[in-house]
Amino acid sequence: MSPAMWLTAGVVVTLAYFVLIGYLAGVLRATHRLPVVITAIAGLVGVLPAILYALYYVFTVTV
What we know:
The protein is mostly helical. It contains two helices and no strands.
């Protein structure tokens, strides 16, 4: 597997992750509960480093 493929997969996963955050922000904002929106987005952003590290680990183990 080429490094370009892993890089593309990482970019796609990261973009999909931020699209999910944007969607959740829009849905939760419609209910006018700002603390819930802030908590949900903070939780999702907090998980992003673990996702990126997992992608990095898989890339370094397989190469």
